[in-house]
Design a protein that fits this description.
CATH topology of the largest domain: Rossmann fold
Radius of gyration: 20 Å
Strand content: 5-15%
Number of domains: 2
Helix content: 40-55%
Strand order of the largest sheet: 7-6-5-8-9-10
Shape: globular
CATH class of the largest domain: Alpha Beta
Largest sheet: 6 strands, parallel
Structural class: alpha/beta
Number of strands: 10
Length: 330
Amino acid sequence: MTPAVRGSALPRTGEEAVERVRRDLEAVAGAGRPVLVGPWVSEVGFELLYWLPFLRWAAAEIGLDPERTLAVSRGGVESWYAGIAGGYREIFNGCSPSEFRAAVEESRRQAGGQKHVHAGSLDRFALRAAGVDADTVAILHPGTMVALFRPFWLGNTPLEHVLDHVRPEPLRDAVPVDGLPAEYAVVRWYFRPSFPDTPSNRAFAARVTAELARHIDVVLLDTGLEFDDHPELRLEGERLHRPVLGVDAAANLRLQSAVVAGARLSLGTYGGLSYLAPLCGLPSVAFTSHPEHVSAPHLEVARAVSRITGGTLTMCTPDTFELVWQALEQ
Protein backbone atom coordinates (compact mmCIF):
# COMPACT_ATOMS: atom_id res chain seq x y z
CA MET A 1 0.00 0.00 0.00
CA THR A 2 1.36 3.41 -0.96
CA PRO A 3 0.16 6.12 1.46
CA ALA A 4 -1.14 9.27 -0.15
CA VAL A 5 0.48 11.36 2.58
CA ARG A 6 4.18 10.74 3.00
CA GLY A 7 6.55 11.79 5.72
CA SER A 8 5.92 12.78 9.32
CA ALA A 9 5.71 16.58 8.99
CA LEU A 10 2.33 18.07 8.14
CA PRO A 11 1.88 21.48 6.49
CA ARG A 12 1.28 24.48 8.73
CA THR A 13 0.55 27.12 6.08
CA GLY A 14 -2.08 27.23 3.39
CA GLU A 15 0.51 27.42 0.62
CA GLU A 16 2.35 24.32 1.87
CA ALA A 17 -0.94 22.44 2.23
CA VAL A 18 -2.14 23.26 -1.29
CA GLU A 19 1.21 22.26 -2.79
CA ARG A 20 1.13 18.97 -0.95
CA VAL A 21 -2.41 18.05 -1.91
CA ARG A 22 -1.63 18.85 -5.55
CA ARG A 23 1.25 16.37 -5.46
CA ASP A 24 -0.93 13.71 -3.88
CA LEU A 25 -3.72 14.18 -6.41
CA GLU A 26 -1.29 14.11 -9.33
CA ALA A 27 0.16 10.85 -8.02
CA VAL A 28 -3.29 9.28 -7.79
CA ALA A 29 -4.34 10.52 -11.23
CA GLY A 30 -1.12 9.31 -12.84
CA ALA A 31 -1.14 5.84 -11.32
CA GLY A 32 -3.21 4.37 -14.14
CA ARG A 33 -5.26 2.20 -11.78
CA PRO A 34 -8.75 2.35 -10.28
CA VAL A 35 -8.87 4.77 -7.36
CA LEU A 36 -9.82 3.87 -3.81
CA VAL A 37 -11.00 6.76 -1.61
CA GLY A 38 -10.44 5.89 2.02
CA PRO A 39 -10.58 3.80 3.98
CA TRP A 40 -12.62 6.08 6.20
CA VAL A 41 -12.26 4.94 9.81
CA SER A 42 -12.60 8.23 11.71
CA GLU A 43 -15.40 10.36 13.13
CA VAL A 44 -18.74 10.62 11.35
CA GLY A 45 -18.61 14.41 11.62
CA PHE A 46 -15.35 14.69 9.72
CA GLU A 47 -16.60 12.35 7.01
CA LEU A 48 -19.71 14.50 6.53
CA LEU A 49 -18.17 17.92 6.98
CA TYR A 50 -14.78 17.56 5.29
CA TRP A 51 -14.09 14.25 3.57
CA LEU A 52 -17.13 13.97 1.28
CA PRO A 53 -17.07 17.64 0.14
CA PHE A 54 -13.29 17.40 -0.33
CA LEU A 55 -13.66 14.29 -2.48
CA ARG A 56 -16.14 16.05 -4.76
CA TRP A 57 -13.67 18.88 -5.21
CA ALA A 58 -10.75 16.50 -5.74
CA ALA A 59 -12.70 14.38 -8.22
CA ALA A 60 -13.43 17.46 -10.32
CA GLU A 61 -9.81 18.61 -10.11
CA ILE A 62 -8.31 15.41 -11.48
CA GLY A 63 -11.28 14.06 -13.42
CA LEU A 64 -11.98 10.94 -11.41
CA ASP A 65 -14.38 8.55 -13.10
CA PRO A 66 -16.93 7.33 -10.52
CA GLU A 67 -17.09 4.01 -12.36
CA ARG A 68 -13.40 3.49 -11.60
CA THR A 69 -13.58 4.79 -8.04
CA LEU A 70 -14.19 2.65 -4.97
CA ALA A 71 -15.13 4.01 -1.53
CA VAL A 72 -14.36 2.13 1.69
CA SER A 73 -16.13 3.16 4.86
CA ARG A 74 -18.33 1.72 7.61
CA GLY A 75 -21.99 1.74 8.56
CA GLY A 76 -23.48 1.21 5.09
CA VAL A 77 -22.97 4.78 3.84
CA GLU A 78 -22.79 3.94 0.14
CA SER A 79 -25.38 6.63 -0.67
CA TRP A 80 -23.13 9.33 0.85
CA TYR A 81 -20.60 8.61 -1.92
CA ALA A 82 -23.12 8.91 -4.76
CA GLY A 83 -21.50 10.72 -7.67
CA ILE A 84 -18.04 10.18 -6.18
CA ALA A 85 -17.61 6.42 -6.22
CA GLY A 86 -19.49 3.85 -8.24
CA GLY A 87 -18.37 1.08 -5.90
CA TYR A 88 -18.54 0.73 -2.14
CA ARG A 89 -17.02 -1.78 0.28
CA GLU A 90 -18.18 -2.14 3.88
CA ILE A 91 -15.64 -2.55 6.69
CA PHE A 92 -18.16 -4.11 9.07
CA ASN A 93 -18.75 -6.97 6.65
CA GLY A 94 -15.42 -8.37 7.82
CA CYS A 95 -15.13 -7.36 11.48
CA SER A 96 -17.21 -6.72 14.58
CA PRO A 97 -17.64 -3.28 16.20
CA SER A 98 -15.44 -4.38 19.10
CA GLU A 99 -12.68 -5.51 16.74
CA PHE A 100 -12.94 -2.26 14.83
CA ARG A 101 -12.80 -0.18 18.01
CA ALA A 102 -9.75 -2.10 19.22
CA ALA A 103 -7.96 -1.51 15.91
CA VAL A 104 -8.77 2.23 16.01
CA GLU A 105 -7.59 2.58 19.61
CA GLU A 106 -4.35 0.73 18.87
CA SER A 107 -3.71 2.95 15.85
CA ARG A 108 -4.29 6.09 17.90
CA ARG A 109 -1.98 4.80 20.63
CA GLN A 110 0.77 4.19 18.11
CA ALA A 111 0.26 7.54 16.35
CA GLY A 112 -0.18 9.57 19.52
CA GLY A 113 -3.32 11.25 18.21
CA GLN A 114 -6.80 10.78 16.81
CA LYS A 115 -6.55 12.04 13.25
CA HIS A 116 -6.06 9.40 10.55
CA VAL A 117 -3.02 11.02 8.97
CA HIS A 118 -0.82 8.24 7.58
CA ALA A 119 -1.56 4.87 6.03
CA GLY A 120 -0.60 2.05 8.36
CA SER A 121 -1.88 -0.91 10.33
CA LEU A 122 -5.40 0.50 10.66
CA ASP A 123 -5.67 0.85 6.89
CA ARG A 124 -4.49 -2.71 6.38
CA PHE A 125 -7.06 -3.92 8.93
CA ALA A 126 -9.89 -1.92 7.32
CA LEU A 127 -9.09 -2.95 3.76
CA ARG A 128 -8.75 -6.58 4.76
CA ALA A 129 -12.13 -6.41 6.53
CA ALA A 130 -13.67 -4.78 3.44
CA GLY A 131 -12.15 -7.41 1.14
CA VAL A 132 -9.98 -5.01 -0.88
CA ASP A 133 -6.58 -5.81 -2.35
CA ALA A 134 -4.62 -2.58 -1.86
CA ASP A 135 -2.12 -3.54 -4.58
CA THR A 136 -4.77 -3.22 -7.29
CA VAL A 137 -5.76 0.40 -6.65
CA ALA A 138 -4.35 3.90 -6.27
CA ILE A 139 -5.33 5.22 -2.85
CA LEU A 140 -6.59 8.72 -2.15
CA HIS A 141 -6.06 8.60 1.60
CA PRO A 142 -7.94 10.70 4.21
CA GLY A 143 -4.53 12.01 5.29
CA THR A 144 -4.46 14.13 2.13
CA MET A 145 -7.57 15.93 3.34
CA VAL A 146 -6.16 16.28 6.87
CA ALA A 147 -2.96 17.80 5.51
CA LEU A 148 -4.94 20.28 3.41
CA PHE A 149 -7.21 21.57 6.16
CA ARG A 150 -4.83 21.39 9.12
CA PRO A 151 -3.61 24.99 8.64
CA PHE A 152 -7.20 26.18 9.07
CA TRP A 153 -7.69 24.05 12.19
CA LEU A 154 -4.50 25.62 13.59
CA GLY A 155 -5.84 29.11 12.90
CA ASN A 156 -3.23 29.85 10.23
CA THR A 157 -5.64 30.30 7.31
CA PRO A 158 -9.15 31.78 6.96
CA LEU A 159 -12.36 29.86 6.36
CA GLU A 160 -11.98 30.46 2.61
CA HIS A 161 -9.05 28.02 2.59
CA VAL A 162 -11.53 25.24 3.35
CA LEU A 163 -14.39 26.53 1.23
CA ASP A 164 -12.10 26.83 -1.81
CA HIS A 165 -11.36 23.09 -1.60
CA VAL A 166 -14.77 21.57 -0.93
CA ARG A 167 -17.96 21.05 -2.90
CA PRO A 168 -20.76 20.49 -0.36
CA GLU A 169 -23.93 18.97 -1.74
CA PRO A 170 -27.18 18.06 0.01
CA LEU A 171 -27.44 14.42 1.05
CA ARG A 172 -30.44 12.54 -0.26
CA ASP A 173 -31.21 9.15 1.23
CA ALA A 174 -34.38 7.41 0.10
CA VAL A 175 -33.70 4.11 1.87
CA PRO A 176 -37.03 2.98 3.42
CA VAL A 177 -37.10 2.52 7.20
CA ASP A 178 -39.95 0.56 8.76
CA GLY A 179 -41.88 1.89 11.74
CA LEU A 180 -41.51 5.63 11.14
CA PRO A 181 -44.35 8.05 11.96
CA ALA A 182 -45.77 10.16 9.16
CA GLU A 183 -44.19 13.27 10.67
CA TYR A 184 -41.45 13.33 13.27
CA ALA A 185 -38.36 14.94 14.76
CA VAL A 186 -35.14 13.03 15.35
CA VAL A 187 -33.34 13.17 18.69
CA ARG A 188 -29.97 11.78 19.69
CA TRP A 189 -28.51 12.34 23.13
CA TYR A 190 -25.14 10.99 24.10
CA PHE A 191 -22.38 12.00 26.46
CA ARG A 192 -19.03 13.50 25.59
CA PRO A 193 -16.70 16.15 27.14
CA SER A 194 -18.84 18.98 25.75
CA PHE A 195 -22.00 17.36 27.16
CA PRO A 196 -20.89 15.14 30.07
CA ASP A 197 -22.96 12.59 31.93
CA THR A 198 -24.29 14.70 34.82
CA PRO A 199 -27.66 14.69 36.61
CA SER A 200 -28.44 18.16 35.24
CA ASN A 201 -27.71 17.15 31.64
CA ARG A 202 -29.76 13.98 32.00
CA ALA A 203 -32.69 15.92 33.43
CA PHE A 204 -32.43 18.59 30.73
CA ALA A 205 -32.34 16.05 27.88
CA ALA A 206 -35.32 14.17 29.33
CA ARG A 207 -37.34 17.36 29.76
CA VAL A 208 -36.61 18.68 26.27
CA THR A 209 -37.45 15.34 24.67
CA ALA A 210 -40.71 14.98 26.61
CA GLU A 211 -41.73 18.54 25.72
CA LEU A 212 -40.93 17.97 22.04
CA ALA A 213 -43.00 14.76 22.09
CA ARG A 214 -46.03 16.77 23.20
CA HIS A 215 -46.02 18.44 19.78
CA ILE A 216 -44.61 15.83 17.38
CA ASP A 217 -43.55 12.18 17.33
CA VAL A 218 -39.91 11.74 18.27
CA VAL A 219 -37.62 9.19 16.65
CA LEU A 220 -34.62 8.37 18.81
CA LEU A 221 -31.43 7.35 17.03
CA ASP A 222 -30.35 4.92 19.74
CA THR A 223 -28.57 1.96 18.14
CA GLY A 224 -27.24 0.08 21.17
CA LEU A 225 -23.87 -0.19 19.42
CA GLU A 226 -20.65 0.90 21.10
CA PHE A 227 -18.03 2.29 18.73
CA ASP A 228 -16.37 4.76 21.09
CA ASP A 229 -16.51 6.20 24.60
CA HIS A 230 -19.64 8.28 23.95
CA PRO A 231 -22.47 6.37 25.71
CA GLU A 232 -26.04 6.94 24.59
CA LEU A 233 -28.73 8.29 26.89
CA ARG A 234 -31.75 5.98 26.99
CA LEU A 235 -35.11 7.66 27.48
CA GLU A 236 -38.62 6.30 27.81
CA GLY A 237 -41.95 7.99 27.19
CA GLU A 238 -44.97 8.40 24.98
CA ARG A 239 -44.50 9.10 21.26
CA LEU A 240 -40.86 8.00 21.42
CA HIS A 241 -39.80 5.57 18.66
CA ARG A 242 -36.60 3.55 18.24
CA PRO A 243 -36.55 2.10 14.72
CA VAL A 244 -32.77 1.59 14.59
CA LEU A 245 -32.22 0.04 18.02
CA GLY A 246 -30.33 -3.22 17.61
CA VAL A 247 -29.48 -2.56 13.96
CA ASP A 248 -26.56 -4.41 12.42
CA ALA A 249 -23.34 -2.38 12.50
CA ALA A 250 -22.95 -2.67 8.72
CA ALA A 251 -26.20 -0.74 8.22
CA ASN A 252 -26.35 1.57 11.23
CA LEU A 253 -25.30 4.85 9.61
CA ARG A 254 -27.27 4.13 6.44
CA LEU A 255 -30.47 3.75 8.46
CA GLN A 256 -29.76 6.72 10.72
CA SER A 257 -29.12 8.82 7.64
CA ALA A 258 -32.40 7.72 6.09
CA VAL A 259 -34.30 8.50 9.30
CA VAL A 260 -32.79 11.97 9.51
CA ALA A 261 -33.49 12.69 5.84
CA GLY A 262 -37.22 12.19 6.43
CA ALA A 263 -37.48 14.26 9.60
CA ARG A 264 -38.74 17.79 10.25
CA LEU A 265 -35.78 18.70 12.46
CA SER A 266 -32.92 17.23 14.48
CA LEU A 267 -32.15 17.87 18.14
CA GLY A 268 -29.62 16.52 20.62
CA THR A 269 -25.97 16.52 21.61
CA TYR A 270 -23.62 18.66 19.55
CA GLY A 271 -21.32 16.35 17.60
CA GLY A 272 -20.80 14.60 14.31
CA LEU A 273 -24.37 13.44 13.72
CA SER A 274 -25.72 16.92 14.42
CA TYR A 275 -24.19 17.85 11.02
CA LEU A 276 -26.31 15.26 9.22
CA ALA A 277 -29.61 17.15 9.28
CA PRO A 278 -28.18 20.42 7.85
CA LEU A 279 -26.59 18.39 5.06
CA CYS A 280 -30.07 17.07 4.32
CA GLY A 281 -31.36 20.66 4.16
CA LEU A 282 -32.97 20.51 7.62
CA PRO A 283 -32.65 22.49 10.86
CA SER A 284 -30.46 21.03 13.60
CA VAL A 285 -30.42 22.23 17.21
CA ALA A 286 -27.38 20.94 19.07
CA PHE A 287 -26.56 21.31 22.76
CA THR A 288 -23.36 21.66 24.72
CA SER A 289 -23.02 22.37 28.42
CA HIS A 290 -19.28 23.05 28.06
CA PRO A 291 -18.71 25.30 25.03
CA GLU A 292 -14.99 25.42 25.75
CA HIS A 293 -14.82 21.82 24.51
CA VAL A 294 -16.34 22.72 21.13
CA SER A 295 -13.91 23.37 18.28
CA ALA A 296 -14.60 26.85 16.89
CA PRO A 297 -13.11 26.05 13.44
CA HIS A 298 -15.31 22.97 12.98
CA LEU A 299 -18.41 24.88 14.08
CA GLU A 300 -17.57 27.67 11.63
CA VAL A 301 -17.25 25.19 8.77
CA ALA A 302 -20.44 23.39 9.80
CA ARG A 303 -22.44 26.61 9.70
CA ALA A 304 -20.95 27.64 6.36
CA VAL A 305 -21.63 24.25 4.79
CA SER A 306 -25.17 24.25 6.22
CA ARG A 307 -25.91 27.50 4.43
CA ILE A 308 -24.76 25.94 1.16
CA THR A 309 -26.87 22.79 1.58
CA GLY A 310 -30.00 24.63 2.72
CA GLY A 311 -30.01 23.58 6.37
CA THR A 312 -29.26 25.34 9.63
CA LEU A 313 -27.12 24.44 12.62
CA THR A 314 -27.92 26.15 15.90
CA MET A 315 -25.74 25.40 18.90
CA CYS A 316 -26.76 26.49 22.38
CA THR A 317 -26.28 25.62 26.03
CA PRO A 318 -28.95 24.19 28.33
CA ASP A 319 -28.82 27.39 30.40
CA THR A 320 -29.54 29.58 27.39
CA PHE A 321 -32.31 27.28 26.23
CA GLU A 322 -33.87 27.33 29.72
CA LEU A 323 -33.94 31.14 29.70
CA VAL A 324 -35.76 31.19 26.36
CA TRP A 325 -38.09 28.45 27.57
CA GLN A 326 -38.98 30.37 30.72
CA ALA A 327 -39.62 33.54 28.73
CA LEU A 328 -42.00 31.70 26.42
CA GLU A 329 -43.89 30.18 29.35
CA GLN A 330 -44.57 33.56 30.97
